[in-house]
Amino acid sequence: MFSGSIVALLTPFNIDGEVDYQSLKNLVEYHIDAGTSAIVAVGTTGESATLTVEEHVKVVSKVVEFADGRIPVIAGTGANATHEAITFSRLLNNSGIAGCLSVTPYYNKPTQEGLYQHFKAIAKVSAVPIILYNVPGRTGVDMQPETVARLAKIDNIVAVKDATGDLSRVEKHRELCGEDFILLSGDDASGLDFVKLGGHGVISVTNNIAARDMADMFKLAEQNNYAEAEIINQRLMGLHTGLFVESSPIPVKWAAHELHLIENGGLRLPMTPLSEAGQEVVKAALAQANIS
After folding, report:
1. Which one of 161, 172, 219, 253 is the catalytic residue?
2. What is the pTM assigned to this prediction?
3. Phi/psi at 192 (nearest 5 deg)?
4. How far apart are CA 22 and CA 47, in angstroms?
5. Residue numbers for the site described as Part of a proton relay during catalysis (predicted)?
6. 203 is in an annotated binding site
């Protein structure tokens, strides 16, 4: 269930800044048709930081409704306050999600013991499997493999999404966490190499606009056909990097709107529209990827 090409789904807004549920439904259909392995709703790319609690829960619930059992849905439930992350877990326990993705607490920079206690407390109330999410570039804290290994001993903590781009951690996590623990990349540029080294898949931003290519690439990887997978990967490499030319999801929202995947490319402050220079970078990456 937690493997292959998983999309870190963007949350579309209409021109008034409200969630555009029709575009959201269209995105779910797009990923089902393309063969995406699973959907993460309201993670970082889904602008969890600017949604209200009510919007957060509704977006996840709507994605589950639109998916209608045809694709697993993973809910972003992380927060920097443990009690808030617990609240999200409780609110979504019976929503039909297949699991939750819980990010390391941002801004307050807990110790490794604080991280352990944070996720241990969440695991006590979660009725679904938990994917740990380590993204120090966003949060200011780096969860060490030894802490992940401690958490892997808790029954319903089943995976880690590692967005450090440090490929040496694949072997380290495997050694410390055991063969059954699921390893997911959160870095598109190194995602295929991550799987080559023993990872199970990627939670991807690129997948938002290149879903079929990403699905095909990781299916080839599952068959150990890395030569053909690498051909796709190199064609998409400009997107893997260009979609981060400005803070995500600014570039990917602009691209999704250009490709008519969503009606409006709007964001909520403090996110602002993609600059003209950024647009040129993404245009060039789309051309390289042969996506129009």
Report:
1. 161
2. 0.97
3. -70, -40
4. 17
5. 44, 107
6. yes
